[in-house]
Amino acid sequence: MNLVGKPIPRKEGRKKVTGQALYVDDLSFPGMLHGVTVRSSVPRGRIKNISFDQPPATAGGSDRNIPWNEFTIVTAKDIRDLKLGENYVALILNDQPYLADEVVNHPEEAIVLLAHPDKYLLEEARRHVSIEYEELPAIFSLHDSLAQKEIIWGDDNVFKKFLVDKGNVDDVWAKADFIVEGEYETGAQEQLYIENNGAIALANPNDGVTVWGSMQCPYYVHKALIKLFGLPEEKIRVIQTETGGGFGGKEEYPSMIAGHAALLAWKSGLPVKMIYDRAEDMVATTKRHPSRTLHKTAVNKDGKLLAMEIDFVIDGGAYCTLSPVVLSRGTIHAAGPYFCPDVRIKSTAVATNLPPHGAFRGFGAPQSIFALERHLDKVAKTVGLTPEEFRRRNFIHEGETTATNQTIREKVDMDGLLNRAFELSDYHAKRERFARENGSDRPSRIRKGIGFASFMHGAGFTGSGEVYLQSVVGAEATPEGLIRILAASTEIGQGTNTIFAQIAADALGLGYDLFEVAQPDTAQVPNSGPTVASRTCMIVGKLVESAVVGLKQTLLGSGLLKDQYTQAEFQRACGDYIEKFGRLQSFSKYQPPPNILWDDEKYQGDAYGAFAWAVYVAEVSVDLLTYEAHVDDFVAVQEVGRVINPVLAAGQIEGGIAQAIGMTLYENVVWENGRMKNGQMTNYIMPTAADIPPIRVYFEENPYAYGPDGAKGIGELPMDGPAPAILNAIENATGESFNQIPLMPEKMMEDLVGQG
Amino acid sequence: MMRLPKFDYRTPRTIAEAVKIIGDVGPDAQFVAGGTDLYPNMKRRQQTPGTVISVMRLSELNKIDGDGKSGLTIGASVLLSDICDHTIIKRDYPVIASAARTISTPLLRNMGTIGGNLLLDTRCNYYDQNYEWRKAINFCLKKDGDVCWVAPGSSKCWAVQSSDLVPVMVAIGAKFRLISTLGERMIDAAGFYNDDGIDYLKKRPDELLADIHLPPTDGWRASYQKLRRRGAFDFPVLGVAAWIRCGTGSGSDRVADAKIVLGAIAPSPLDVSEAARELIGQPFDAEHIHAAAEACYVKARPLDNTDFVMNWRKQMAREYTLRALQELL
Lengths: 756, 329
Description:
Chain A is an alpha+beta fold.
């Protein structure tokens, strides 16, 4: 019908703006306790003693005696004593404990949990838990970890390695006209969702464990709690409350806070609420993986890529969490939307004693794409071509293969995207004008520059991931003929509920208001997989479409509905069916598109069902007296298949670009002995509206045959391009090549004039 | 979740009542105006008064009187947003309105007062942290500890004066009126701040800042330039207030008097007399402005206790002085 492609208002928008939407901290239960976490103050060490002290008699102010007997106290020992399950957060390697047992491996690691009805007294009590440590040597950078300055994890500090080998790069170096090398680094970044992490748990041996919380992936939490409590899956129930943003920061971490709240609830027998404040959320929860990439590229004199050798390393922090999959996505995206006959990508995720790094929008790809798109400007310069001409000679086309030997079967048109982006940004005229102005006899102290990046982002889980996930979506009709979509995919501000309803309504030719998306609750909805990897629209949206079509087919098969129907007839048919047969439900399970083959061993084959393609252009000004760079204009042209909701889609792109501008020029995580030193919004500088340029978003539509109404993924794409586009523009403005982000003014000053 | 500690809250209606309460309760009491500085500090346990006395209901502290001709008196409880929008302040003391407009965000300016801003606690990376963070480093000299992490070995606290209005008040020669049960006194803004991050005010704890007296605007002009990482929200990591008075009659092409005051680089505002000397008696032109800026660069010795590295902040002292003076050309 005609809802897809229209700016339909958000399903939950009215509730959010009128304050009716209930976030986890809005919920309360009779007898509820509040919970807090006591965390490690050292980066690495053995726990020698834990004591529960009293304030000194001389203490003034509000200090009063702590009635420790009133508190519920949980340590690692309780998980054993209460005969629960395993003390680890079930994910990939299961190396991260819920509560540190004997050793700590990073600052802010959880050691003791406290609960009490009085949240003020609870805070006083937290201050009086003393933990003694025998400190052990710690390492804080991926360089020290690679050099094995100290072995802090396993035998070699390595969580995971990948090798992608296409052709044989070793045979190419000798015949290359140019060999260009480069080194590139990216820093950590905090997700800064507007709502901090939080959970409420009810848990006891009779009823099992129920958790409400702010999260992206209810079934991840579900899986983790099954292991922690050693209970069967039906005894664990996880319900997502309205969630104020995630950006990956609520992919794996909610399993931790949910487990903590549930442990306190189990031991106390009462409901327990845990809500982090911003300071705790920033210092203790996951951030984007810092990275380092080495490039060695062989090119012939015509500017054709002959070979690429890439060494990509990410810092996983103290525990594995999702590092292997972040590494995987970064690895696969490392060679970009170019055809190169010989490619070798080696990648490694290493351990340090920083709090674990985790999922963050883009998931490794922004890091490796930053390196590539900076490097290609360098290669172009060496060959004597403009950045765009060099890329044009190497863009991948339909029928050619990516680094993993995936044959592109889409009509990809990178040249077309580049043309459009250049036209919209007036790239050529500006490039010429800036060169003239910057090179004049009396140049202004403000240098202008323009640069771009071309890139792609794969939608859905990597390789065979979607096949393993076996996602399921359900649809259910009420006797009144309303339809509820049953999926575990969460609305976290990105528009899940709205696009699901649009897709479903169009699939049946019915009105938008007939559709409702059920609250994700593991007792009520099937596992449609996690809300990550730009998969919600493309993968889960497709399942929504087939689930609701299943309802229609059931009705047609029953004879209660005819091929041609009005909305009223459809609704009546639902009522008649339910009266006659009971429930009217339909479930749809993931089927991979045909000819998708992936070899997990060799890391070869079809990494993604589809890619989104993009060219982003950034215009900057650099003040040569203060060394501050400002993004003045931004043009984002992308092909994401069919756009389901243009307002939500443009919002995704604008938000991602703003977040990426933060990563590039403003957001600098400062560590001191592994502890975040600027864990507050006053000193962790996220750009505001005053710092963000006009962001001009354009979509080219090339419907994808296996996406709902032709849609592909979109959520992570905008995180990939801005950083290299901005640094390419800064090089254009200053003539200086910067290869590290965040690029702060002081760093630019250091490089441009040396420590003066 | 950080929580406020328990405290007694008092709301006197007269200045006499307010100063009597603080006199009676003693050092465990503290005045509060908008609370935008004190309450977050209390949540982090940087300050832990047992009694908090609000000055927001003291009507005498809520007035603005006078104008540029007579001089202007601003009550200490006037909201920062009212300072930004006040017709006479905008007309006669635009530097005050524009400096106030750089403070934090509209929401906080709707709560925060001019008095609170002038008494703002000094700030430091090692101090402005929650209790757990400070405990993990064994606290610092300014609160609960005995080491200055910015300058270990120092017996002095280097926390930074971080108000945008303070350097302006010092530069233009404002005076503050303080009241206690012992009476009242006027003190020059220039003499009001100590170069010590802990004992940073020459105000006794029992004294109430009642109002701010701005001098008449006879022939001087002033400007303020603020350095921060982003275009809104942040505390200054450098503030430069510049004030000049040109001569009269035959000396009208020369600078008769000048003051350059740097904020946010030391525990107190830094009056760079060397910079003023480069200007006084000279034509107000690019050459002398550059000389003054150079003097500020030499004098600025920021420490590594705010955002941005110190060398860069030192470099910016030159650039921001230039900008502040150029604004007065």
